[in-house]
Amino acid sequence: MTDTSAKATVGIGLIGSGFMGRCHANAFAAAPGLFDLPATPVKAMLADATEEIAQSGASALGFERATADWRSLITDDAVDIVAITAPNVLHEPMALAAIAAGKTVYCEKPLSTTAASARKMTEAAEAAGVVTSVGFNFLRNPMIALARDLIASGEIGEVTGFRGRHAENYMASPDAPHSFRTDPQGGGALADIGSHIISLARHLLGPIAEVTAECRTIYPDRPVAVGAAERRPVEVDDMTHALVRFESGVSGSLEANWAATGRTMDLSFEITGSRGAIAFSQEHMNDLMVYSGSGAGAGYRRIEAGPSHPPYDRFCPAPGHQLGFNDLKVIEVAELIAAHAANGSCMPDFREALMVQETVEAMQEASNTRGWVRL
Ligand SMILES: NC(=O)c1ccc[n+]([C@@H]2O[C@H](COP(=O)([O-])OP(=O)(O)OC[C@H]3O[C@@H](n4cnc5c(N)ncnc54)[C@H](O)[C@@H]3O)[C@@H](O)[C@H]2O)c1
Question: Which of 240, 245, 273, 334 could tie 210 with a disulfide, CB 3.0–4.6 Å?
């Protein structure tokens, strides 16, 4: 990090300018106005697959320089944090190069295509002592922090069960085309969005000890590209249903489903306890539903996000005005910059994302062997 003025700056190198690249760029731009950061991010360099995409991404997203060579971005002296938003199969080589260069690595989820690859990345990062962070941004929701606090404080008594789901409809049509998301190397609904509900389950209830699952392909083939007549077989799951047992002994179910007709963002859970229950869906991300009581009685009450649920107050002084998806990335980036400056930990880090990846793989193995797999 270079201290060029009264306040230090931190150079950002962004790889990829697609959906997540834009989201990262927006977060790095917004974070200093909303949070008291130890350093101000400078959008130093953007890399993409070609010179043309990189140039247009850099000018649209406000980066100083552009390159079609992500390796030169990583070794550039102006880059302190490498943000990886390229397709999953590129995460490993990009992260390993960034670790070798001693840079802080901010990688999108899933960490990689296999648990072995994710382990290699984690061990390299830990050996080098670099700060790592993985984009499980849904954990940054103040209402998720509230749910965690309520569980820890005993508000719902002893936890008795967990039902979790990440369901969307972006692959619900048989004509939704192939992309890196259907790559047999690390693609599929379970890796793509199941990783989010697994990370959320672990965040709320701790490690998962054992799983069984059924991974299903609903549509046997899809167009090779947008609008193409040619079709190619699908080798990954469209839908996975799993049973899980947490190390605490609590059991539950998890679903990953990108062919969930009618659902746009049902990253949701319901946690039952001996004295109450908590329910949430990202489709209503500013609400936490809480039930207090052990037997029959009044239903759930809705707790609305407001300034008493930090860091909502950083964005807005009034309740009910609502945070959005991109705000979660701003919170994630603010925590990343604080960790980078302190050379401290930034959860969920590579190690945590490795645990998620191992859970994905255990579910795939359980589906293949039609049995239970211990983690
Ligand atoms: N955290 C979340 O909520 C969330 C949401 C969506 C995607 N993601 C993750 O983000 C990553 C990217 O997904 P996306 O939806 O942004 O995809 P995308 O296709 O919109 O963007 C990918 C970008 O990477 C670029 N790219 C491809 N090859 C490259 C190369 N060799 N060098 C440099 N750049 C290259 C593409 O040109 C594109 O700009 C994936 O790992 C995905 O799982 C996370």
Answer: 245
